[in-house]
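Hi P.,

Sorry for the delay on this. The queue was packed all week, but I finally got your sequence through. Input first:
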Amino acid sequence: MQEEKEAQKGGESIISELKEVQGEYAQLSELEEMEHDYAEKLVGALKEVQGAIDQVIPIERVALGPSFRYAKEAYLGSDAVVILTNNSGISSAIPLVKFKSGEILSIVQSATPHLKKAIATKRKETAERVELLERILKEMKKTGSSVKRQVPEYQAPEEEDLVSSSIASG
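Then the structure:
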């Protein structure tokens, strides 16, 4: 009788532990799905930022993780493609979204200082062009105004007026 009660308690404890495992597994599945979605969104945002600067960005090899330790060089190319070169000079291109989430984070972390510098440089160059265009436009407007003041209104010769009036009356 005593053994039977202990067996029931043991069975109940196993059942409660299994329920806990099921709950943890459900949470893990949900978190893994969220991790995948966020990783895809991060890659999409990175594509957009990198598209604005249109540059290949060097990546530290350690950011790739142990799966890609064969890589001699690594770059983040357009459309968020990781370009790997091995010691033999053979290259391969792998979409960033194909990497594990932890590797994506490392790659983005490695690329961020380069992105920051490239964006700052492009912003500065664009600001300089905008300033130059603005100054040229102001000067062009001044030139246009002075030309209008110096050139008298165009008067059609009388012959043209006769032709125009004969067409109008005809």
